[in-house]
UniProtKB/TrEMBL annotation, chains A, B:
InterPro entries for this protein: FAD-bd_oxidored_4_C, FAD-bd_PCMH, FAD-bd_PCMH-like_sf, FAD-bd_PCMH_sub1, FAD-bd_PCMH_sub2, FAD-linked_Oxase-like_C, FAD-oxidored/transferase_4, Oxid_FAD_bind_N
Domain FAD-binding PCMH-type, residue spans: 43-224
Source organism of the structure: Herbaspirillum hiltneri N3
Pfam families for this protein: FAD-oxidase_C, FAD_binding_4
Record flagged with keyword Flavoprotein: yes
TM segment ranges: none
Similarity field: Belongs to the FAD-binding oxidoreductase/transferase type 4 family.
Keywords: FAD, Flavoprotein
Protein name per UniProt: 2-hydroxyacid dehydrogenase
Length: 476, 476
């Protein structure tokens, strides 16, 4: 770097510091560390500085400075992503732009069923602000205590209520975005219908910060259900689970808000690592389905609906056994079985995760075919198959055979990933259902995305971020 | 035009004829007339030819020919649009590319709740194919007997079931598109979750054919409700209607699938022009709301829910009277009151239509304020206010004062439009809620869309259609 270049960089850093205040301009290792390593601790990057602007205007000022000095920007929310989308690379050339200080709830409109929130709002705080107005913000996922809505929007997060309420994309009506040029696009409209041009909103949603920086959003709220009731069904195969899904949807319509598949091995791992948690049946069953009903009438009505569905399912021999939770505590205990799977799997040793989706109708066949392919790739490995069956989204994870060292098992990862992702592709599925591409799957997607789609994506990137400064090395 | 240019054009036309067959290459006035005039008969354009390809490959071939010869393309579905989006201008330089021969339903997957349809499928045929599998395709609008799904997608059509099921955008999972370069983008994935890059799907949806040509789509299906029950409530003001909406949503949740506001003057026009249709109450009321419940249980259950809501609404003095339809015939009769308004208004003389939306919570105030503004712009005119209140979408139409000639009244259109649209803008609304921009509102939107949004839209247009051949003069 020449002296002139060094001066130019110092000018840039000085201008950033002036723009956002020295307290929010971080360069000391102790201050920046948490922003440079991903949540699972697999990767640590470097940065010129970590910038924590306190308003949309400050974000715009910083982005303009970056554009002028050609400094790459890595936007970051709660940094809870799983695909290395929110940490910088190791070049040290980029700044991390943390949105966490933009954490105001700007407005709640219970009649319009909308809330205007800044990007750095923690998801759980949004849920609670909605509940305080007798409204539901349905987005719900494991990281909700620390992830931010800006990150949820940028990755189009999924979670456990997609079956009824859709992905984050479906929960957003309007956005405020700072473009790659540092302009502020204020489209914070709380409208259910607006057909006045291209859908810029959905282009920024799911773009993982590579086209611009989401600084605020208008999100949808819903009436709070009067009751939520949970049941656990024991059954033989994923195909039986599919037939149960069709039955439950026909009987319950939109009241069916959760439908999660868990294999027996998942439940065994939970029972082993988190006693006394276990599936509440006399004997083992090959598969389990967790169902949730959200009812606008009453708990009694929800339970009656469940009893009718379970009765029909037993009669049609779709399921072999079932329990309906009769209290909130019981409901929570059933959900915990589902939520403990990831941790139980971690306790069991290294594991290889896949966040995949296929058409719901093909899930049974997909599992049968792919289980064989994975065994060929890694003989003796154990499948930890669970997930949002109602959305066609499986966490199709692989644990090593007993007694194999993690370091040996991890060598098999490329072959296992290839087997799973090639199979997903053959079934018309997606290799990233809800986590995004980030840096982790950026190369992998080139194998599966058509040249036309890649060309269009690159054309859009070039049009909206011509200097390629927005979250470089992610997605594309 | 030089001789060389004429030859070039003749080569182009010959190549198109060869590509799609002479029977589908239309140039005679008698053959092309229906493709050149808009549905309401307000505008007639000209075209080099009307091309009716029979497959996606033929569409791609034609688009490649157009790209090579720099011939503009006007894609057309059922040509039922209301904003001059699907007819060519009068230059005669473009070809009309009709998608109506691409009318196959390629696949129905009732377990995945999806259907793969070609762009030229008539909406009603899709509804029927879904019903044949005990599934619901919920998109429903006045033109459903002749509009095509390709047009619905290109305009992101709304209709009467948006409250529960969303706009066309929300009903689509995957697209097949012929790009402006004539490539085929095959993204016909029937996935509920897929986070592998930019949302190209939603960019083409609602782009009114200006970025590429939608040739097929995977659409979402839903379980068929077991019962649909309709009620009509009589009440005092739009604000009372809003409070009724909140009550009904809290009580019925997703079962509330329709919520339509109609002013007394609307009902008077229907009663005058279509006797014996009239609101079924002893006396006149200032406003009426049509409510629809779709129930996954039974008609009895739906009626009980309605009785509970109506009882509470009477108790809270939100409504003054109500009837619940006790048969399908009665339900239909209530819906007819709503559907006859447009025709009744047409019988009453020339009228000026506005397809606007505002945040639902602001509808009452919007109507009060804007009614005054419109009276100032056109003293004595009569408001025909009705629409999808549950979506914040009003057809806020204006009929002339009695005795005024149509030709005189139409002179006031610019002043009336300006008053209404400026007011919509002040209320954070949209000047085109469900009809799109087409050629009709292309200039108008420049007044209301921010420079940043317009710049981004133009950048995307330039990136995806660099020669500006796709539906020129529409949207942008």
């Amino acid at each position: 770097m020449t002296a002139a270049q060094q001066d130019f960089r110092q000018d840039f850093l000085q201008a950033c510091r002036d723009a956002i205040g020295i307290a929010h301009f971080l360069t000391a290792d102790a201050d920046t560390a948490g922003y440079l390593t991903d949540q699972r601790g697999r990767y640590t990057g470097r940065a010129l500085a970590v910038l924590r602007p306190g308003s949309t205007e400050e974000v715009a000022t910083v982005v303009k400075l970056c554009a002028r000095h050609l400094v790459p920007i890595v936007p970051q929310g709660g940094n809870t992503g799983l695909v290395l989308g929110s940490v910088p690379d190791t070049s040290g050339k980029a700044v991390v732009l943390s949105l966490t200080r933009l954490n105001r709830i700007r407005a709640v409109d219970p009649v319009n069923n909308t809330m205007t929130v800044e990007a750095g709002c923690i998801l759980q705080n949004i849920q609670q602000a909605a509940a305080a107005q007798q409204r539901l913000f349905p987005l719900s996922l494991a990281a909700e205590g620390s992830c931010t809505i800006g990150g949820n929007l940028s990755t189009n997060a999924g979670g456990t209520a997609v079956l009824r309420y859709g992905n984050t994309r479906e929960l957003c009506l309007g956005l405020e975005v700072v473009t790659a040029e540092g302009e502020i696009m204020s489209s914070l409209r709380g409208l259910r219908k607006d057909n006045t041009g291209y859908d810029l909103r959905d282009l920024f949603i799911g773009a993982e910060g590579t086209l611009g920086i989401i600084t605020a959003a208008v999100v949808k709220l819903f009436p709070q259900p009067k009751a939520q009731v949970t049941a656990l069904a024991a059954l033989r195969t994923p195909d039986h689970a599919l037939r149960l899904l069709s039955l439950a949807q026909a009987q319950c319509g939109a009241a069916l808000t959760g439908f999660e598949l868990m294999s027996d091995f998942c439940m065994q791992l939970v029972a082993k690592h988190f006693p006394p948690h276990r599936a509440p049946f006399d004997r083992l069953h090959p598969q389990y389905v967790l169902l949730e009903l959200s009812d606008s009438e009453s708990e009694v009505h929800a339970s009656e609906m469940f009893e009718a569905v379970i009765g029909l399912a037993l009669e049609q021999e779709l399921i072999d056994d079932a329990v309906i939770a009769s209290s909130i505590a019981q409901s929570k205990a059933l959900w915990q079985l589902r939520e403990l799977i990831s941790m139980a799997q971690a306790h069991e040793g290294k594991n290889i995760k896949h966040d995949i989706s296929v058409p719901i109708s093909r899930i049974g066949e997909f599992i049968r075919v792919t289980d064989v392919l994975v065994q060929q790739a890694s003989p003796g490995c154990r499948m930890v198959t669970f997930g949002h069956l109602g959305d066609g989204n499986l966490h199709y994870n692989v644990s090593p055979p007993p007694g194999i060292k993690d370091t040996d098992f991890i060598l098999e990862q490329p072959a296992i990933n290839r087997a799973v992702h090639d199979s997903v592709d053959k079934f018309g599925g997606s290799i990233s259902a809800e986590h995004g591409l980030g840096a982790l799957k950026r190369e992998e997607i080139l194998r599966y995305k058509s040249p036309v789609e890649l060309r269009l994506m690159r054309a859009i990137k070039q049009a909206l971020d011509p200097h390629a400064l927005m979250n470089p090395g992610k997605v594309l």
